[in-house]
Amino acid sequence: MAKAEAFKGMQAYVGSVAAHRRSIAITSPRGGIFLEFDARDLALTHRMHMRDVCGVAPERDGFVCTDGTGRVFGTSTGAVTASH
Question: What is the pTM of this model?
Answer without folding.
Answer: 0.87
